[in-house]
């Protein structure tokens, strides 16, 4: 089991944070390289379409009716906050849902280091999350998960 990548989208559909994990090298991946790539745009489009479909099929109209979906090669885990920040983890197929871990990542790491940070922009626009403490704490949080290998 392993985590391949982690994305955060803001309420304007912009990828404000991306992190790829390479489990073979000590540096362990790249940060904010794929924010403007077609991968991030296609991922957001897929999530938007599936979320819209799941809301139409779900009578409860809950915000997080879409939790994860899988393809033949990977599983995508999804969490959306009340402020419309979307957290996405891409893992291998053997990983069960990580909804509660994404909620914890949002509530503990993101809120304390990005939302409560006076130097962070209120509207990101073309800005990206480059806060070193957020990057370090998010990496540490994900590395401590039993699925991170």
TrEMBL record:
<keyword id="KW-0333">Golgi apparatus</keyword>
<comment type="similarity">
    <text>Belongs to the TRAPP small subunits family. BET5 subfamily.</text>
</comment>
<dbReference type="GO" id="GO:0030008">
    <property type="term" value="C:TRAPP complex"/>
</dbReference>
<comment type="subunit">
    <text>Part of the multisubunit transport protein particle (TRAPP) complex.</text>
</comment>
<keyword id="KW-0813">Transport</keyword>
<dbReference type="GO" id="GO:0005783">
    <property type="term" value="C:endoplasmic reticulum"/>
</dbReference>
<dbReference type="GO" id="GO:0005794">
    <property type="term" value="C:Golgi apparatus"/>
</dbReference>
<protein>
    <recommendedName>
        <fullName>Trafficking protein particle complex subunit</fullName>
    </recommendedName>
</protein>
<dbReference type="InterPro" id="IPR007233">
    <property type="entry name" value="TRAPPC"/>
</dbReference>
<keyword id="KW-0931">ER-Golgi transport</keyword>
<keyword id="KW-0256">Endoplasmic reticulum</keyword>
<dbReference type="GO" id="GO:0006888">
    <property type="term" value="P:endoplasmic reticulum to Golgi vesicle-mediated transport"/>
</dbReference>
<dbReference type="Pfam" id="PF04099">
    <property type="entry name" value="Sybindin"/>
</dbReference>
<dbReference type="InterPro" id="IPR011012">
    <property type="entry name" value="Longin-like_dom_sf"/>
</dbReference>
């Amino acid at each position: 089991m392993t985590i391949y990548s982690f994305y955060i989208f803001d309420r304007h559909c912009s990828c404000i944070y991306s992190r790829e994990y390479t489990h073979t090298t000590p540096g362990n991946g790249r940060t904010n390289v794929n924010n403007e790539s077609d991968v991030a745009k296609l991922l957001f489009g897929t999530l938007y379409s599936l979320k819209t479909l799941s809301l139409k099929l779900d009578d409860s109209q809950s915000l997080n009716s879409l939790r994860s979906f899988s393809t033949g090669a990977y599983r995508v885990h999804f969490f959306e906050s009340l402020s419309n920040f979307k957290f996405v983890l891409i893992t291998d197929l053997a990983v069960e849902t990580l909804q509660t871990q994404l909620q914890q990542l949002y509530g503990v790491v993101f809120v304390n280091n990005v939302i409560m940070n006076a130097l962070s922009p209120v509207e990101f626009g073309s800005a990206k999350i480059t806060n070193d403490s957020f990057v370090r704490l998010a990496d540490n949080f994900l590395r401590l998960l039993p699925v991170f290998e």
